[in-house]
Amino acid sequence: MLSKPIAAWILLGGFILAAAAGAVNAVGFLGVHHQALSHMSGPLTLLGNEIARAQGAAAFRAFVVIAAFFFGCVTSALILRQGALQLGRRYGVVLIIESATLATAWWYLDHGKSGGEGLAAFACGLQNAMASSYSGAVLRTTHMTGIVTDLGIALGQGLRGHAVDLRRAGLYSLLLGGFVIGGIGGSFGYIHLGFATLLFPSALVGIAGFGYILFTLVSDRRHAGAL
């Protein structure tokens, strides 16, 4: 059970990040060889398919996406150095780097240069590695398998008459809704704007990053004034 109410900044931040990841993933499916970018199940399957079909170039593209996502996670972990979610400006730094990486990915893809999908996957890896524990709940924003699973378990427990952690279920529902809404927006954007759609999640996480840094600065000053 979540032992305390969920802070508004966690709810808002989680929704924004899930929406951004949903948008990036939609662009990947529609514009990058039907390639998932925000999670690795699809690219790993694609890698296996292309190796089996002896399609070297396609297999290499899938490998680049997987490797980029992995090194995005490594970079995020090096910056954050913590597993429990707590106020700290390092989250803002990661989000700003993610924003810049997505903007660069748009430029590469829009100009037909190789490596754009890798940059987008790197940005998603950065965000995915920000997944932290909050009072026992694992917060993930770039893939929904675990969240859908946990929501299904909660419903099953509720149907059996067991107690359900409604706070956690509400948080996971919010993240799921954000990802779906982001996917709809990303798909609609790609149809009309192409790869420029990536500028929207870039702006979203960039604003969130700068906003988070400002929020922590204000919180630190209030805390210092209360001492």
Structural summary, described in words:
73% of the residues lie in helices and 2% in strands. The chain is an all-alpha fold and 227 residues long. The chain has one domain: Growth Hormone, Chain: A, CATH 1.20.1250.
Integer tally of domains: 1
Gross CATH architecture: Up-down Bundle
Unreliable residue runs: none
Main sheet: strands, sense, barrel = 2 strands, antiparallel
Mean pLDDT: 88
Major sheet: arrangement of strands: 1-2
User: How many strands in all?
Assistant: 2
Topology readout:
Elements: H1 8-31, H2 41-52, H3 56-80, H4 90-110, H5 116-128, E1 133-134, E2 137-138, H6 145-159, H7 166-193, H8 199-226
Entry keywords:
mainly alpha, 8 helices, Growth Hormone, Chain: A, two-stranded antiparallel sheet, 227 residues
In short:
By secondary structure, the protein is mainly alpha-helical. 73% of the residues lie in helices and 2% in strands.
